Amino acid sequence: MTSNTPSTAMNGRVLDRAGSGGAGKLPKWLRLLLKSKTGTTGVVILLVVSVTAIFAPLLAPHDPVQQNVADMLVPPAWAEGGTSKYLLGTDNLGRDMLSRILYGSQVSLVVGLLSVVLAGTIGLAIGLVSSFYGGWIDNAFMRLVDSFLAIPNILFTLVILKVTGPGMTTLIVVLGVTNWVVYARIIRAEVLSLKEREFVRAAKSIGVRDATIMVRHLLPNVTSSFIVVSTLSMATTIIAESSLSFLGLGIQPPTVSWGGMLSAGREYLSDSWWMATFPGLAITITTLGVIFVGDWLRDLLDPRTKEL
Questions:
Q1: DSSP labels, 23-77
Q2: CATH of 38-54+80-301, one of 3.40.50.1370, 3.40.50.920, 1.10.3720.10, 3.40.50.300
Q3: Per the confidence metrics, is the pTM higher than 0.85?
Q4: Residue 179 in 3-state DSSP?
Q5: Is-contact 8 262, C-beta < 8 A?
Q6: 308: pLDDT confidence band, cut at 50, 70 and 90?
Q7: Pick from 198, 290, 197, 279: which is nearest to 237 by CA?
Q8: b/e map of 220-237 (b: 16 or more CB within 10 Å)?
Q9: Mean pLDDT, residues 218-241 taken together
Q10: In this predicted structure, what is the pLDDT of residue 297?
Q11: Under DSSP, is residue 146 helix (H, G, I), strand (E, B) or coil?
């Protein structure tokens, strides 16, 4: 009886490890994702939107720019008086709404991603250099930041687009150039604290170059904040692109954009509600998906988050 006790205890520990092994093998990010309802929802939304954008030519039932005068303002197939040919109806020029929404996802993702990459690169570089060197360099960059903060982003963007003319490339550059400030301020605040740490002082004492310290020692420590800000900034950028396209200063026809579709549908709200409703829902759902993922990433990358 006594001789079997260690074996029994050992077997119990083995069974415990085997029973919890499935959960223990899951990566931390996946466990956090499965635990977070908003995170899971956001990831699913972004996956659907991304797949839609990539495979839009295969998924679209009709040519998004093909006009059909005989089918103008046809209601959705499931609505009263609808036709099975058009699932989400047609617009005032007889173009299929579903196909246009599918193609519009490409514009929103491309503009959002590229604008965030440009703004993040500018803000990261300025934030690192400004806080690392300090002195007059920091003062000069911070006065530049104050200048950008003094002018509303949308007003600054409208002025530049009015001078340079609308277009996708111009829109990406303008949104990137006007949205770097938030990155610079957050990165600067973190580096001001990090540069006084022992590992930075040790690197300086042995003659490591400043560029190497910033890239190899400081940059990895601000990556989590950078990713979270980038995610939330992308939601803002998608809304900005839609707003500018709505005003006629963003994406120009025949390129399809959700903001342009929303602008075209505002004149038909009373009797052709689907023209504005579906693009508006696409913008709202995509933006919420990005925000949900940003909240999840904040929890995932927060150093204060305890191991689950």
A1: HHHS-HHHHHHHH-HHHHHHHHHHHHHHHHHHTHHHH-SS-TT---GGGTTPPPT
A2: 1.10.3720.10
A3: no
A4: coil
A5: no
A6: very low
A7: 290
A8: ebbebbbbbbbbbbbbbb
A9: 90
A10: 85
A11: helix
Question: What contacts 198, CB < 8 A, 6 or more positions away?
Answer: none
**Residue 198 pLDDT > 70:** yes
| Distance between CA atoms of residues 218 and 226, nearest Å | 12
**Integer Cα distance of 103 and 224 in angstroms:** 32
Long-range contacts from 99-103, C-beta under 8 angstroms, 24+ separation = 99/60, 99/61, 99/62, 99/63, 99/64, 100/64, 100/256, 100/261, 101/258, 101/261, 101/278, 101/279, 101/282, 102/52, 102/53, 102/56, 102/59, 102/60, 102/64, 103/56, 103/60, 103/64, 103/256
Classify the phi-psi angles of 234: left when phi > 0, otherwise alpha if psi is within -120 to 50, otherwise beta. Answer: alpha
Question: How much helix, strand and coil, in percent to the nearest 5, is found in the chain?
Answer: 75, 0, 25
DSSP 3-state of 180: coil
Tokens of 279: 């693009």
Instruction: Give me the pLDDT at residue 21, please.
Output: 45
Quick one: CA dihedral 38, 48, 237, 274, positive or negative?
negative
Domain ranges of the chain: 38-54+80-301
Q: Residue written as tokens 């003094």?
A: 150
- Tokens representing 290? 């990005």
